[in-house]
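Before relying on records like the one below, remember that each one covers exactly one chain. Contacts with other chains, cofactors or solvent are not represented anywhere in the record.
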Amino acid sequence: MRAVLVRVVVGFFLLVATIGIVFVVGVRRKSATVVNAVRRLSRATKALPLKTAGTGDAYASVVRHVGRTSGKNYETPVHAVAINGGFAIALPYGSSSDWVKNVLAGGTAAIVYSGRTYSVDEPKIVPLAEATLSFTSRDRLAHRLFGVKECLIVRDAGASADGR
């Protein structure tokens, strides 16, 4: 009986490790199958992070954007970091995410960050290296692990010319 229990436990941990490796390698290599599965899971569960996103010291912020074809209003949880005169958002799934396309097409959005809502404009995709120092060392480690190469930079439309 003990040997069976050990096999089950070892098998379970091997299964979890295998799924973890497939996930990391799939996201890192931008495997369409893995990335699309993660996107579907994120969409299905996004109500949970939206409950606290953008409040106080929450890790996630919220991007409010308008659908480029539907015209509907959307909210997407993201990890935005403040930079001089705006925000940077790492793009672990690349620039082909619908919310990124919507922000680029519309040219404007709003970001809820630390309890405040900021109107943003001038969105542009840049290499992550241009904003990497704005992220924490923990974020940078995750970016390297998952092969994140791009980020979205937006300008705080309400900031003065000197970034304040």
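The chain has five helices and seven strands.
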